[in-house]
Amino acid sequence: MVTKFVISVLAIALFNGVKAQGCQNPQVEAASFTSLDATIVTQIAYITEFTLKCDNPLPENYALYAEVEGKPLTAARIGENKYQVSWTEEPSTARSGVHEVRVLDEEGWASLRRARRSDPNANVAPLLAIQLQHPGSYSGPWVNSEVLATALSILVAYIALHHKSKILA
């Protein structure tokens, strides 16, 4: 009876050890999207969708976390082995260029949090890193059309009055 109990405990421990194993040899296919027109929106949206393939099968509730420039985010599961990371920024603070989305599993996220308790600038190697390219957002022309129309009408009126005074003189 004791041996069956010990074997059962060892089998459960072995099963949980295999289940808790992280992604081995991660392969990722990613697509990224950003808001490009800041004239009509109040927030610039950044969205990265990716498919994660591992050599070992992952559990259905495999949680992933992300970090972008020190901002903690959660990777939402949107399908089988498909995840999405998204965030928004004010147009005034949104910068163009490459944003690195660092994706970590639960073990990596816990390690990062432990490391950050003692050193706020500490880093842990991510499970994968995705590069999101943001070309910048269009926030309108340098000169509004109303200002340009007013300036041109003043210029035309000045030229007309100047030539009128020359003709009458």
From TrEMBL:
Alphabetized InterPro entries for the sequence: TRAP-delta (IPR008855)
Cell compartment(s), UniProt: Endoplasmic reticulum membrane
Membrane-topology annotation of the record: Single-pass type I membrane protein
Annotated signal peptide: 1-20
Swiss-Prot/TrEMBL keywords: Disulfide bond, Endoplasmic reticulum, Isopeptide bond, Membrane, Signal, Transmembrane, Transmembrane helix, Ubl conjugation
Domain of life: Eukaryota
Keyword Disulfide bond on entry: yes
Cross-referenced PANTHER family: TRANSLOCON-ASSOCIATED PROTEIN SUBUNIT DELTA, TRANSLOCON-ASSOCIATED PROTEIN, DELTA SUBUNIT
Role this protein plays: TRAP proteins are part of a complex whose function is to bind calcium to the ER membrane and thereby regulate the retention of ER resident proteins.
Family: Belongs to the TRAP-delta family.
Record text on subunit structure and interactions: Heterotetramer of TRAP-alpha, TRAP-beta, TRAP-delta and TRAP-gamma.
Name the UniProt record assigns to this protein: Translocon-associated protein subunit delta
